[in-house]
Design a protein that fits this description.
This protein is mainly alpha-helical and 514 residues long. It is built from 23 helices and no strands.
């Protein structure tokens, strides 16, 4: 598909299917929010544990497995990968419905994270082949709208199910299931059926949209296994040893330093699972990045060796840091602080939140493409807006006692924060070659998960536990605004040069580019 040709109708159909997948992705991911108060009571856990279940248990393993699965998306049949992933995360969501302990629910959330790690690396790569560069931010924004639609729908469905189930079966329903368990089953099972539709999608020719067709990889799973060994402990030590004693010593020293920091944080907060998981995550990323540098210098150079790429994804990571936490804690705040019923909170947070997110991501994507045509760094203006615009609405929302004002500001927060996603995602794709897009997407999601999802919801929950104030917990998220601003201002200066020199830098690192 040449850049100036009309986009085929099939591309729009396929994009619609991907949006549906992403909607279900976030229903399964976010439904924990509206169920949080019931889970907290039934399992006897605290806000910090809820933050761990929603963010860290899911996010760390989503990020880690996203790396080898991103590599597989760069080399294997992307439609088949998404089909298998959808079936896995839907099954693990359904399994959450049978959890009767914190440990069991944590295991199921890890499984959901591993399954969902297949979705976006494959989807971003597919969209980049179905749509030309001039429409990439728009197409990725439409895909990303599933995030907000799914998040909103999860609250609507979850609130209704848990309230009506508990009213009908106050002592436990069929199979002795509580309302929150029934809700997990209700949203998990349909995904297994949707996997059949996904399997029928046609695989596009990789790189054809830009006239840079990539040859099929003869042994696609070899790279996947290599990435798996590079990122999953303790295989990481064996992978490091392949590159000599110096590489192994460096890896061990990094593991010790990260373990000591994680131990100190666990002692300080009293939350051992959180910091074990985060420590594993950050050590695994270090191992993978150092291994990638030796195994694939061009990909390393355009991703980890690019300050423009890193500042872009870390800057957007600050948007995710706040928005993930707000999307999770909004429902518990309405139920616990404002005294709203779950069905009411689910309706007024889920519906307007989904609308705000949908409008924000679509309008933000269009604005990003419009600005990009006039300014090489134009898309980053939209990302910076996503960092700064939510600050005042967040402060007012989580200090008010007025439910109507809270719901309106939740809509506003969703609108503002969602505007940045398409711009950040498109920028990350433009800074690499077609064969690297799955890996670039996985790296992009390291920032949104290991920084945003793994730390944002947990921080709010930890501060809430320590201060006995959920309002104070959420307000602690404001630390992300100045950090994100600095990162994005740096990216604004660096991105134009980095984008125009992609091929030259790849060749300098050893890439063969036609």
């Amino acid at each position: 598909m040449l850049p100036d040709r009309k986009v085929p109708a099939y591309s729009w159909y396929a994009l619609g299917v991907l949006v549906l997948i992403y909607v279900l992705n976030f229903i399964d991911r976010n439904i924990l929010s509206i169920l949080a108060e019931d889970i907290k009571a039934d399992l006897g856990i605290g806000d910090d544990d809820l933050g761990f279940l929603y963010g860290t248990a899911f996010g760390v393993f989503y990020a880690l497995f996203g790396i080898p699965l991103g590599k597989l998306a760069d080399s294997w049949h992307r439609v088949r990968l998404m089909t298998l992933g959808l079936a896995l995360w839907s099954a693990m969501t359904a399994l959450s419905g049978f959890a009767r302990s914190f440990a069991t629910l944590s295991f199921a959330r890890i499984g959901v994270g591993v399954g969902e790690a297949t979705a976006s690396p494959a989807a971003y790569s597919l969209i980049s082949d179905w749509f030309p560069k001039r429409m990439r931010a728009t197409a990725l924004a439409i895909y990303s709208s599933g995030l907000y639609l799914g998040g909103g729908i999860s609250l609507l469905i979850g609130g209704l199910i848990v309230e009506r189930w508990n009213a009908s079966y106050p002592d436990g329903g069929p199979l002795n299931l509580a309302g929150w368990q029934a809700a997990f089953l209700a949203v998990g099972i349909p995904g297994i059926l949707l996997a059949v539709l996904v399997f029928t999608l046609k695989e596009p020719i990789r790189g054809e949209s830009e006239g840079m067709v990539s040859e099929p990889v003869k042994d696609p799973f070899r790279g996947f296994v290599r990435e798996l060994f590079a990122v999953i402990p303790p295989f990481t030590f064996f992978q490091a040893a392949r590159f000599g004693a110096g590489a192994l010593i460096k890896n061990i020293v990094a593991a010790i330093i990260i373990a000591l920091v994680a131990w100190g944080l666990a002692v300080f907060t009293g939350n051992v699972p959180q910091w074990i998981a985060v420590g594993i995550g950050y050590y695994a990323v270090f191992s993978w990045a150092t291994s990638l540098k030796r195994r694939d210098p061009p990909t390393f150079g355009l991703i980890w060796g690019s300050p423009a790429f890193l500042c872009t994804i870390l800057g957007y990571g600050m948007v995710a840091f706040s928005s993930y936490a707000v999307s999770f804690w909004a429902a518990p705040y309405a139920i616990r602080v404002l005294g709203e019923a779950p069905s009411v909170a689910g309706w007024w947070i889920g519906g307007p939140g989904a609308l705000g997110g949908f409008l924000g991501v679509i309008l933000g994507g269009r604005a990003a493409d419009w600005l990009r045509e006039r300014n090489p760094s134009g898309r980053l203006i939209v990302v910076l807006f996503g960092v700064l615009a939510p600050v005042i609405p967040l402060i007012i929302a989580f200090t008010t006692q007025n439910a109507a004002l809270f719901y309106f500001l939740n809509f506003t927060l969703s609108l503002f924060a969602s505007s940045a996603l398409g711009a950040a995602a498109a920028t990350s794709q433009d800074l690499v070659l077609p064969r690297m897009r799955g890996t670039a997407t996985a790296t992009f999601f390291l920032a949104t998960t290991l920084i945003g999802l793994a730390l944002g919801p947990y921080l709010a929950g930890q501060v809430s536990t320590m201060t006995q104030s959920l309002s104070t917990g959420v307000l602690s998220l404001l630390i992300a605004a100045p950090i994100g601003t600095i990162l994005l201002l740096v990216a604004y200066k660096l991105v134009p040069i980095a984008e125009t020199t992609v091929i030259e830098r790849a060749r300098a690192a050893g890439e063969t580019v036609a």
